[in-house]
Design a protein that fits this description.
Layout (H helix, E strand, L loop, with lengths): L4 H13 L12 E6 L2 E7 L8 H13 L11 H11 L7 E7 L11 H8 L3 E6 L9 H7 L3 E3 L4 H14 L4 E9 L12 H13 L2 E5 H7 L16 E4 L19 E4 L3 H4 L3 E5 L2 H7 L5 E7 L16 E9 L2 E8 L2
Parallel strand pairs: 3-4, 4-5, 6-10, 6-11, 7-8, 7-10, 8-9
Antiparallel strand pairs: 1-2, 1-3, 11-13, 12-13
Helix pairs in contact: 4-5
Length: about 325
Amino acid sequence: MVVDDNFYMSLAISEAWKYQLLTYPNPAVGAVVLKNDELLSIQAHKCAGEAHAEVLALKEAYLKKYPNDLLSKIVDVFEIHDYLEFNTKDFFEDCTIYVSLEPCNHLGKTPSCAKLLEKLKIKRLVISCKDDNKKASGGSKILKDKGIEVKYSCMEKEGKSLLYPFLQWSKKSFVFFKMAQTLNGAINGGKISGKQTLKYIHSLRNKIDLLCIGGNTVRQDKPVLDTRYIKDGINPDILIYSKQKSFDKSIALFNVLNRNVYINDNLDKLDNSNFVMIEGGYNLLEVLKNKIDYVILLITPEMKYGLNYISKMKLNFEIIYEHYIEDDKIVYLKIIK
């Protein structure tokens, strides 16, 4: 039987997109474990400091065969590594591991995934993108030197699209614009997105260094711009982009604890922050289009009366990826400049 490497890599990449931007400052990475043509697990890295995609996939794969094993109770990433290395015998020796980014080759907040795969003596490793980070790269060479088959560049274009935000914020600021709308393009009239999508937005706010919003939106909508939909969220600092500096300080966003609010008529703070989210409508998108790396469009499946796109601005986009959070469609767009 010929194994379709692209199919299994697509599963890994799709899983990673569910956590895109939420892994900051780490990249979003997905992994799949295949054992004798049986799909055992699909996993992704979920949060910096926690287990990497490969380790989660290995753990899930082993527990699929041995659901009552002690491994099910282990959550510490170092303990998971140790348990997999010393207690799974030869379980992984006939396994192929698919991973969207070359396994890491260094000890940081987590142990080296490449060295774990070496110890487990996996049969085959399939990689979408090599890791160009000098600190973490070289994992695949370790495995090749041990006689493990390694295949490179499987769905490399899709892997690089997944990796793009990480590459950007590793060398400069990464700025994305979030806009929620109905099917007919209405962007006003209160909450548009569903509860799970709002939770996703608040999870993004929890990761960013700065949230930028236009002055008119602040005056009209009087937003809070906090992280109340997630547990122990960190409320982001706010940049209000406005020529007029006077605001009603009773507006909710000014009264959130442990936050700085800046009111500027320039965008210097965008360049001096590593990970920036912009929330707004068409006018702000037009003003800031040259600063934006991504547009994240949240589309709810309903039509209603409201403000539609009426600007004379013309923008062309490349659709990078799209998926769903319950009924809402999430579209990642890159502006073609």
